[in-house]
Amino acid sequence: MDTLVATVKTLSNKAKHLSTNVAASGGKTTPQVSILQRPQTKSYAEAAAQLPKTPTKGRKRSATQGPTPPKNPKQKQTKEARAPEDTSATPAKGNNENATVSRPKNTRIAKRRLYATRATPAPLPEASKLEPKISMAITKELQKCGCSAPTNLQIQINPTNGTVSLTTAPGTEAAEYTNYLAPMTTALSATLPEAARDYKEFPRAPTDTQVVIHGISLEATSNEKDSLYTVMKESLFLGQQVNISSARFLQNDPKIRTTKWYTSVVVSLPTDDVEKITPAVLVFGRHKSSVVMWHSNPTKQCRKCYLYRHPEEGCKATKHTCPICSGEHRLKEHRCASPACRKKGDKKIVANCCPVTPSKCIACGGNHPAYAAECAIKIKAKADAKAHYDRRRPSPTPEDMDITK
Predict the structure, then answer these.
(1) What is the mean pLDDT of residues 113-130?
(2) Hey, what domains does the chain have and what are their CATH numbers?
(3) What is the Cα–Cα distance from 344 to 354, expressed in whole angstroms?
(4) What is the DSSP letter of 308?
(5) How many helices (DSSP H) and strands (DSSP E) are in the chain?
(6) What is the pLDDT of residues 165-183, one digit of tens each?
(7) Closest CA relative to residue 249, chosen from 273, 226, 283
(8) In whole angstroms, what is the distance from residue 288 CA to residue 217 CA?
(9) 328-340 pLDDT tens trace
(10) Contacts of 283 (CB under 8 A, 6+ apart)
(11) Which positions ≥6 away from 143 have C-beta within 8 Å?
(12) What is the rounded CA–CA span in Å between residue 78 and residue 288?
């Protein structure tokens, strides 16, 4: 009975509370929705699928999306505001005469190197500790002499013979330090201990090119090695304004030269002046043929014809030869003749890609590229080089072979 009375009181209180809310809302009531009638919440993927798709770059907008909105003009103004006002210091692409700043051209490492050797080759003790001291001493000496070239040079000491090598900055040649070689040597000797002060003066690295001039009259040179340099230097300087650093006979044996009327002379000169005296030069009142001298050996393979015993500079072939198929084209132009090549040799360089374009060595005619290690001509060239080297080595004497010593 008590439970029934409590339930009636609770219902009466709720009825009073509902009537009060209805009066406050102007007689409108909010319908009560049951749990079963409530709409189910959608997942994130379902809700995102119902959103209008944003047009991507390169796709046309649909009719429901409307026209493409205009770009924000502020973005363009921001980019223009960030652009530098003075662009004269920025080098433009191509030939720009108004550009004031340009990157220095890279110079070959041989033209950037200076070195000092010891009178008696020997390792320099504590070379790693002396390198920074030598670098600072040479830098101070160059600044003291008023050197306009960069004074901070890279230094390296050979751990075997103690040679001190200096490398200039990129774009700076060693020739700019010619007038300061003696002070640099003095600064080097002052930094070293007294027992190691036997270094010679810094010379320039040998970067000259050798040119062979054929048909030089022996009467003009007197067939004497000592006077050859003086005669050739005076003749080439007066006629071509070229300074040579050395001159020698191509035939070293003077007895063989006396049996001939003419001979060939090898001169060394700067690389920039090679074009002035090649392929012909006026010497002693006569035009003589001249070529750049090249060195070779039995294993030297030409990169133009891919034969042996001469480099590309001395090749007499008029066209390039492919080392893979022996065709008259360069290696980078080699392609398979079959468009259905399984190894895609029609799109890239592939040796022995298919039977349609087999490999063929230009040297021995074998089924392999010309640079392959199994080439019979290459194996023979290595054997000839080894035999030539063995002939030049002195034969051991019985005393050298005595193992009892």
Answers:
(1) 88
(2) 109-196 (3.30.310), 209-292 (3.30.70.330), 298-396 (no CATH)
(3) 10
(4) B
(5) 10, 8
(6) 999 888 888 888 888 888 9
(7) 226
(8) 10
(9) 999 999 999 888 8
(10) 213, 216, 232, 235, 236, 239
(11) 151
(12) 68
